[in-house]
Amino acid sequence: MKVELRGIHKYFGVNHANDDITLTIPSGTIQGILGENGAGKSTLMKILSGFIHADSGEVLLDGKPVVIESPAVAIHDGIGMLHQDPLDFPPMRVIDNFMLGQKGGLFPNRTRAARDLRRLQKEFDFDIDPENYVDSLTVGERQQLEIMRLLYLGARVFILDEPTTGISAAQKDKLFETLKKFRKQAITVIFVSHKLEDVEKLCDQVAVLRQGKLVGAMDKPFDQKKLVEMMFGKEVPLGTKQTACQDRTVLNLDRVSIEGMRLKIKDIDFHICEGEVVGLAGMEGSGQDLFLRACAGLIRTVGGVVKVNDRDLTGKSYHTYKKHGVEFLPAARLEQALAPGLTLAEHFILAEKQTGVFINHERGRRLAEERIKTFNIKGAPVSPVESLSGGNQQRTLLSLLRHPLSLVLVEHPTRGLDIESVVYIWGKLKERCKQGAAIVFMSSDLDEILQYSDRVLVFYNGRISHPFDANKTNVQQLGELIGGKGWNE
Amino acid sequence: MKHTTLNRIGFQLFALLLAFGIASLVLLAVGASPVQIYKDMFGSLGTKGKIADVLVSWAPLLLATAGLLITFAAGLWNIGVEGQITFGAIGTTLVLRLLQNSAMNAGLIIALSIFAGMLAGALWAALAGALKTFGGVNEIFGGLGLNFVATALTIYLVFGPWKRPGTGSMSGTQPFPEQFNLPLFEGLRLSPWALVVAVVGIVFVYFLLQGTYFGLRLKAVGKNFRAAYLLGIPTWQYMMFSFLLCGALSGAAGALQVTAVYHRLIPSISSGYGYLGLMVAMLVNYQAIAAIPVAFFFAALNIGSIQLPIVHKLDSSFSGVLQGLLVLFILLAEGARQRLTPKA
Lengths: 489, 344
Prior knowledge:
The structure holds two protein chains of two kinds.
Chain A lengths: L2 E10 L2 E11 L4 E5 L6 H8 L7 E6 L2 E3 L4 H6 L2 E4 L11 H6 L10 H15 L14 H14 L4 E5 L7 H16 L3 E6 L2 H7 L2 E6 L2 E7 L4 H9 L16 E11 L4 E10 L3 E5 L6 H9 L4 E8 L2 E2 L5 H6 L2 E4 L3 H5 L6 H8 L9 H14 L15 H11 L6 E5 L7 H16 L3 E5 L3 H7 L2 E6 L2 E2 L3 E2 L5 H8 L7
Parallel strand pairs in A: 3-8, 3-9, 6-7, 7-8, 13-18, 13-19, 16-17, 17-18
Antiparallel strand pairs in A: 1-2, 1-4, 4-5, 9-10, 11-12, 11-14, 14-15, 19-20, 19-21
Helix pairs in contact in A: 8-17, 12-13, 14-15
Chain B lengths: L1 H28 L4 H10 L4 H26 L7 H19 L6 H28 L5 H21 L32 H20 L1 H11 L1 H6 L4 H28 L10 H12 L6 H15 L2 H5 L5 H23 L4
Helix pairs in contact in B: 1-14, 3-7, 3-10, 3-11, 3-12, 4-5, 4-6, 4-10, 5-6, 5-10, 7-8, 7-10, 11-12, 11-14, 12-14
């Protein structure tokens, strides 16, 4: 089935998530979609699969314009989406999951479905027991089940969102084999990924998105260097940097191992000094978030020693780390860092040292007014935090940091913020560095990482690169590592 | 700011009208006259004796509500409050039974027994809290389960170890001698001491939530658990504290039921004040002072409905219908207000 997107626009507030995207995918093609986090890939795919609606633009299937109202309409039109986390029902049996979405009234025909499932399994060489429960399957098997289910529902266009994350190498090979078989059946595949290697191996043509725009397209064979450049943009001039770590070590990790839900990171050796800024690069979910949380005592390490200011804090809780001058600022400000319903003044009161039993509201108000002024927050002491804009919420978070501090761990310090706030927030963070704090931050914006960090670590699938001197590396080198190139096995 | 308040009052008045309207429809459906029934329910408030009766149930209801406001502030649905009232009553009864033949001053024994009731309530709440924080059992399920256990325990005590001389009966244990009852107002069934305990309870909660660091931290935990943790608040300890305080206050309610109202342990000692308190707490939306009139109104509905079976051959559970409708519509109105009012 031929898929055409014409002039797709989508806004989320002021954020232009899809900016005039036009793309034609011939029938039976495997189309790769590359881009950083936040480039607009997911938005585009969600529009195509009916989860959200475009503000303007049209979608044509085999030359006919269609209005995709909902995922149900999408599958009716032949568009099936395979989500990164399979959208199935783990407590139900394989066969029941397989039949989901079928039209067939009150009494579905299990025998026929079982027969069809067997036939499909044979065709693609899958081996899943239909009577098994889905929660006992591996992610790869669940993916296979979803593929068969969508096929059974009549999908002629498959959208796969980061399908190679969390599955084994053998399963990946099988997946690619299956997708290649689709070509002959004139089924179109849209393969969304940030892994250059996978895209090169599988796709016939590639489109690259950056900041909501379609910045380039390429047919086989791919010029890898150019792809990286399209994904991450051109070099930017860099500011002055601290070259080497001469001062006191603030944080020291010695052969630390971390286990997350999907990833394990083994034997991390890392240290950071007073006044230093280290940026963590990598695609979302490559382990940076685990790393930051482990440095804050928010998740337990499973091996090794964590030292803050030469004190062994291995296995201690975040509150102990906090006592030693460590602060963690999460990316989800309103969900994890601020208490919606409480006012600015109340937040300042909570963050300050409290003496006595009764709240000194007057002091709280004065404190709030003073911080609002110093941090240029647009809000009043009595404003509930949820009424502030994202930039002002981030300023509030920074203004809640205590003095003195040893280490600030920040997730996406400027995500979703306007330029003015970005400059302001980095100004405040750098001020902290001058006062002796070290900063570790993760960001999906390579420019931000290169501009503000002294050293850079790249994360890929639970692996961590050696630290790069931010002055001596470039977008090209980091971009390839982020995409999974150049890691020795 | 002023506009919002007016707006809110308007919506709530509308909700009040709707609740009474639908309750009237229910009455019409069973062939009763709504006007007559409302008149009987509220008109009887005219006499001093009736007002005193309302206050008799107002005191424990207010205490349960006060406790619930604390757990609400911490973001917890302490459904187990019923069991906490019941267990408080058991604790009070236990101490009275142990000490009634001692040489101690009767007043001191009453005070001790009320204190024991608070302790027992806190203990029962701590169980629900521990299930939540250490066992990962949602406080709604844990609390509900513990309510059944507390009721079963009461029935066991009434018919077993604490039964009246002769055979046990649903009417409860042997009443305590008069010196172990809280003194009453002359000619009324109302004890001034019960009022004092209730008012102290709600004022305590008001100051706790409005004016103390403890209250503010509790609210932070309730509004956003994770943010509170990042702000340095020991979150699970605060949850446990809120359970303990709520349990102590509802335990006091149970203690009053024994020392000021029934003078013995009866199977339905909690009288549903826990569930009713949940409704009051939801309605007043964290405003402790507002609980005073709202609890009074709910208590009045309860008392007013007592004579419905006698006069109108209606079941007295009609007050429950009306209370339920009120909560439902007022919460609905608040939701509708937020949806319909354009944001500034």
